[in-house]
Amino acid sequence: MYPENNFASAHGRARRHRIVFAVLFGCVGVTVFILSQCSVSGLRKGTAAAHSPIDVDGTSISNIYRNLWGSQFQGYNCINERWNHQTKMYKNTFLCSTKNSYVWGLSKKGNLVWKDLSTGERRMYYENIYNHQANYFWLTLDGKFQIIGDNGEVLWQKKPGNYNDIGYHQCLAKFACPYLHLHPDGVIVLNWIDAATGSWITKNINKLYGI
Q1: DSSP string, 106-172
Q2: Which of 67, 77, 172, 185 has the fewest CB within 10 Å, making it most exposed?
Q3: What are the tens digits of pLDDT across the range 64-85?
Q4: Is the peptide bond before 178 cis (omega within 30 degrees of 0)?
């Protein structure tokens, strides 16, 4: 056999090998693409639907959102254990304790309520007995509790005792004072910085607001 025939034969075999490799590589690529699309689709239809982020005052908070289905918090939209001032807490939104089974927030009926889900004990902070169209709860910059109606009216308000100097301070990296914190033992406190001394102040909201 002539050398060029050997070259042609070898070249033919190499070409066939390249074709087979390309086909195999293409199949692998298609398979990976299909699997990735299935995963994305599954997330969109499954986990993402059940754990979709809540929009708080126009800002996505998916990084701190917890919807704990299949646990003691089933049915409660849990958003961290802290709540910043001037952030709207819409109905069926709750602070949830990282330990034990405590929740505090605005129910579907527009009640501001604390619950121990392990015992059924509950404490009502605001009861919507007149079926007002409560839109959201928020903590004002000067420490007031307010329930705001659909038309922007203040349906209910509580002042923080005799403290008149509560104001803005960047006291934590992700939370500016004043802010609320639900502790693992179920106690909810208001945190702020004393304007005169710069001291950190923590007060149980039951005593602070006389509830």
Answers
A1: E-TTS-EEEEETTT--EEEEE--TT---EEEEEE-TTS-EEEEETTS-EEEEE--TT------B--S
A2: 185
A3: 344 443 367 888 899 999 999 9
A4: yes
Together in a domain, 119 and 194:
yes
Range of the domain at 148: 54-208
Q: Does residue 106 share a domain with residue 193?
A: yes
**What is the rounded distance in angstroms from the CA atom of residue 175 to the CA atom of residue 191?**
10
Q: What's the domain count of the chain?
A: 2
Q: How far apart are CA 122 and CA 182, in angstroms?
A: 15
Q: Is the dihedral of CA 177, 180, 182, 183 positive or negative?
A: positive
pTM of the predicted protein model: 0.67
What DSSP string describes 175-201? -PBSEEEE-TTS-EEEEEE-TTT--EE
